[in-house]
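We include this case.
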Amino acid sequence: MANIKSQKKRALTNLKRNAALNSDKSQLKTAIKAVLAAVDAKDKEVATVALNNANTLLDKAINSSLKHKNYVARQKSRLSRAVNSI
């Protein structure tokens, strides 16, 4: 642990930020898995709702610099293609 007061504060801030980012990443992955599970079950209505939720979280991931815009575009395309294939 650091001896300087500002570095102690910074270390605590880093821990909080890391926990928040991990939570956001987990939530995003869960949303994507929900869409894929609905597609596997061939449930179009549930898949559409899950896709809307996933798209919202993906857009927020760009704004918070959690994911790159190309990753988000690729995921949105793959998920919408999967839902449309039902």
